[in-house]
Amino acid sequence: MPLLVLFGLAMLYIGWALSAPWRQRRRRERWAARPFPAAWRTVLRRRVPMFARLPPDLQLQLKRHMQVFLAEKAFIGCGGLRVTDEMRVVIAAQACLLLLNRAPDPFPTLRQILVYPGAFVVDRVRTEAGAVQREERQVLSGESWSQGQVVLSWQDTLAGAAIADDGRNVVIHEFAHQLDQEKGYASGAPYLDSARDYARWSRVLAAEYARLQQRGPGEPGLLSDYAATDPAEFFAVATEVFFEQGELLAQESPALYGELSRFYRVDPASWDGRRPVAPLAAPPAPGAGVF
Fold this sequence. Notes:
Elements: H1 3-18, H2 20-33, H3 38-47, H4 50-53, H5 56-72, E1 74-77, H6 85-95, E2 112-116, E3 120-128, E4 132-140, E5 142-145, E6 149-153, H7 154-162, H8 170-180, H9 195-214, H10 231-244, H11 246-252, H12 254-264
Parallel strand pairs: 1-2, 2-6
Antiparallel strand pairs: 3-4, 5-6
InterPro entries: MetalloPept_cat_dom_sf (IPR024079), MtfA_fam (IPR010384), MtfA_N (IPR042252)
GO molecular function: aminopeptidase activity; metallopeptidase activity
Protein name: Zinc-dependent peptidase
């Protein structure tokens, strides 16, 4: 093959590769611009009461994000489950809450959502004192993997969607982990805009995390005891509460609410048309950051 032809083919390939982001953006724009199916609107009304709480502009945004999400992500039924459009829409609606007021780039490292009929069992190897390894079996409602997969229980997904203000939502929880894991591991600190943002995030969340760990077992509070497991779980649990009990979180932990509001670019405390929340308190003084 003549050298000139090889050079031309190489340049065509380079041009095609360099145009990949542009082509992806155009595809997403076309998906987002499609009419939202009437059957999907029915599912939102019946199964996702959180949708009705959103202001009209955010409802429109959510539907557009959902259309891109559903076009790009693969859903796989497990344990004999056949995935239906209703399942896909309910999961996408809750996951895409985390993408509001952002460019349509839905969870770039995520490839698949695995759905079980109910809670599923996983085997884990736990390292104890003295480097002793012990196998243990856990029953889970959801799990997020840094390799590009989220695993969900459909029963728990439905239950989490049905009550929009209890601060418990397995889809929001696991997709918060996905945002945290975009860098390859979960630490409780997702990608932020600047070093200054990271410093403030670390101060605020470390202080709130320490306060939670000092709370006695079973002592009442918005964040569950599970949030004290590690910084990654703290971020995921706090995200559930932020979206479902925003006004209460803003009152109880205004600095934490402020950080989550800046990161997620939404103000759930205002979604129910209540009076605006009090001004956000200043972040706590610098301390030992664990996020």
